[in-house]
Write a sequence for this structure.
């Protein structure tokens, strides 16, 4: 289905369901700054009468009107529940059902909101979609200091894992914790260089759009394979890279950079590596 067909299918479904009072579309589909492609999700919120309760959970035949499923996931949250649905024609719809009582709170919490249907004008005025609510926020001094501490603190864990031959452990610590610290640094770097008016996307997926090419390529090169020598090399590459970005952030934001932590940890890593080779 094309973009307009999917949205019209959603509207038709909502019109035919008396329990549904209003429908909104969220996320990258309504983000004016997001690159568009046919595989993007449709994040839909259906606002329902309270008496309907869990009706759409217990009566799931409505799903068939959108196509044939590849796989589905159903989750609950405080204000309602959601169906995450991947269809065979490539369409992905995440459809939540939320009590109409929570409509304004839900809409006001997400600047990427577009009204698709409001049967009785219950939603009130909704501003045009904007990703301003997703801009990188300038870190506080406490947040910056804490992140830099975590970045250097986690590196000995990786070195010890390599020394012990515990490669899945070392790789997990590198990919899940150390790289995440570096990603946050780069998000702050992007924010700082755009007057804190940039959205780098979920999981930093749009780094390629906002980072200088050289820095982006350096960042990608940090990801190692499972081979111990590559993890060691990436570990010693990550330190200088984090220092380069971290020092610039610290200087421009007026925050302290942990020079002593960097020096001590780097020295310790080299000792562990020498011991591993002995």
């Amino acid at each position: 289905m094309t973009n307009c067909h999917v949205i019209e299918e959603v509207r038709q479904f909502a019109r035919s369901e008396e329990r549904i009072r209003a429908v909104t579309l969220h996320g990258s589909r309504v983000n004016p700054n997001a690159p568009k492609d046919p595989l993007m999700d449709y994040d839909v919120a259906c606002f329902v009468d309270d008496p309907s309760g869990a009706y759409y959970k217990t009566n799931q035949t409505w799903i068939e009107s959108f196509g044939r499923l590849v796989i589905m996931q159903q989750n609950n949250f405080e204000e309602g529940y959601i169906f995450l649905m991947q269809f065979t024609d490539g369409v992905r719809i995440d459809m939540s059902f939320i009590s109409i009582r929570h409509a304004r709170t839900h809409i006001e919490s997400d600047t990427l909101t577009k009204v698709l249907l409001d049967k009785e004008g219950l939603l009130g005025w909704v501003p045009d979609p904007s990703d301003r609510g997703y801009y990188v926020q300038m870190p506080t001094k406490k947040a910056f200091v804490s992140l830099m501490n975590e970045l250097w603190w986690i590196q000995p864990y990786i070195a010890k894992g390599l020394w012990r031959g515990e490669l899945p452990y070392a790789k997990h610590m590198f990919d899940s914790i150390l790289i995440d610290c570096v990603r946050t640094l780069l998000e702050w770097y992007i924010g700082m260089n755009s007057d804190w008016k940039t959205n780098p996307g979920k999981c930093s997926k749009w780094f390629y759009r906002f980072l200088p090419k050289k820095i982006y390529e350096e960042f990608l090169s940090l990801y190692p394979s499972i081979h111990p020598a590559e993890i060691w090399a990436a570990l010693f590459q990550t330190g200088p890279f984090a220092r380069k970005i971290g020092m610039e952030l610290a200087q421009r934001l007026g925050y302290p950079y942990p020079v002593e932590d960097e020096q001590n940890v780097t020295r310790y890593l080299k000792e562990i590596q020498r011991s591993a080779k002995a």
Notes: The radius of gyration is 24 Å.
